[in-house]
Amino acid sequence: MQKYEKSCDQAYFIIQSKDGRRLGCVRMYNPSGKSFEWGSWLMISGAPPFAALESALLIYRYAVDLGFEEARLEVRQDNVSVWKFHENVFGARLVDESERDRFYIVEKSMIKRVLRVHAKRLRSYKSLPIQ
Fold it and tell me: Which of 86, 98, 115, 123 lies 20 to 30 A from 59 at CA?
């Protein structure tokens, strides 16, 4: 935790409901040019149905506001529901895989498209409009 506290290349976020109940956490890390990674995404059992989608949308919205244009993802092979979520909702493109992991890229055009489609879910997030 001390190492994390001193670093400036990653950020952890607590995911919570509108009434303040903690639902999980997510991390942005490994920035490289206009690209970033996100993961360490954990949600409690019984989280509201749209909590995962909304937390992913907020990560992408925040990343766009910071000037990032591409996301890199690493998902365990056996975590089928998560990699299908990234593929089906965000158009994640599989770029490599190992016995243990699947590696994806989500490009700027897909990030912006999904943010436009789900703009109403991000109403309370104050930031610049998506072009």
Answer: 98
What is the helix (H) or strand (E) element at residue 34, kind and residue range? none
In the chain the domains, ranked by start, together with CATH numbers, are: 2-122 (3.40.630.30)
Q: What is the pTM of this model?
A: 0.84
Express each pLDDT in 66-113 by its tens digit: 999 999 999 999 999 999 999 999 999 999 999 999 999 999 999 999
C-alpha angle 100/57/90, rounded to 5°?
55
CA distances 126 to 30, 49, 119, 123, Å, are 25, 23, 12, 8
What is the C-alpha separation between 112 and 1, in angstroms, rounded? 33
Reading phi first (left if > 0) and then psi (alpha if -120 to 50, else beta), residue 41 is in beta
In whole angstroms, give the CA distance from residue 37 to residue 27: 8
What is the distance between the alpha carbons of residues 104 and 91, in angstroms, rounded to a whole number? Answer: 10
